[in-house]
Amino acid sequence: MNHIVCFRTGYWIALLICSTTIPLGAQYGPFVGANTIVLSTSLADKDAYLAITQVLTAESLSFSAEKDVLRIRSLPNSILTSKGLVFEGQLWVNTGVVKLMGQLLEGSNGSNGSTVNIAVPITYTKGRTFRQRIGFSYMDELAKKLQTALKGSIAYKHQPAGTL
I want to staple 56 with a disulfide (CB 3.0 to 4.6 A). Which of 4, 34, 61, 141 is the partner? Predict the structure, then answer.
């Protein structure tokens, strides 16, 4: 009987740890359709934002704050620029959970000679869609650098458009 009680206690402790470190619906590895990278941190929100801005500055990414969202954009000296692409991302911090989503902008010439940006949402794919694959790799590398600064875990999830 003692073994059953210990097993149940261990089970509930493991369940509690998993539920507090991984947001609902997230997985530790990327999966087809994942469009959001979720990082956990034990830092307070203000300290998390400071750590994030230090990483973004070191990576030569421009950023601006808009309400509770940090808007991120790759600069012209980015590796993406040589491919005619620009990374544009959004980052949210809320009580120890950091969410990162993004899209790639590809410039093309319009009929009147102006440049038109075509937005490609970033999702993990195993297919041959070059833009999505390179966009997810870029966002994933950024998330791994943020993970080091935030001293937390990283997970992947599918977030429906327009929701946090």
Answer: 61
Q: How many domains does the chain have?
A: 1
pLDDT digits (tens, 9 = 90+) for 37-78: 999 999 999 999 999 999 999 998 999 998 889 999 998 878
In a domain, 4, yes or no: no
* Residue 108 structure tokens: 């093309």
| Burial state string for 90-114 with b = 16 or more CB within 10 A and e = fewer than 16 | bbbbeebbbbbbbbbbeeeeeeeee
Total count of residues recorded for the chain: 164
Does this model's pTM top 0.85? My answer is: no
- What one-character DSSP code corresponds to residue 87? E
Q: Domain for residue 39, yes or no?
A: yes
- Structural domain includes residue 34: yes
Query: Quick one: how far is CA 129 from the chain centroid?
Result: 19
**Would you place residue 80 in the very low, low, confident or very high pLDDT band (cuts 50, 70, 90)?**
confident
Give the per-residue SS3 of 13-77: HHHHHHHHHCCCCCECCCCCCCCEEEEECCCCHHHHHHHHHHHHHHCCEEEEEECCEEEEEECCC
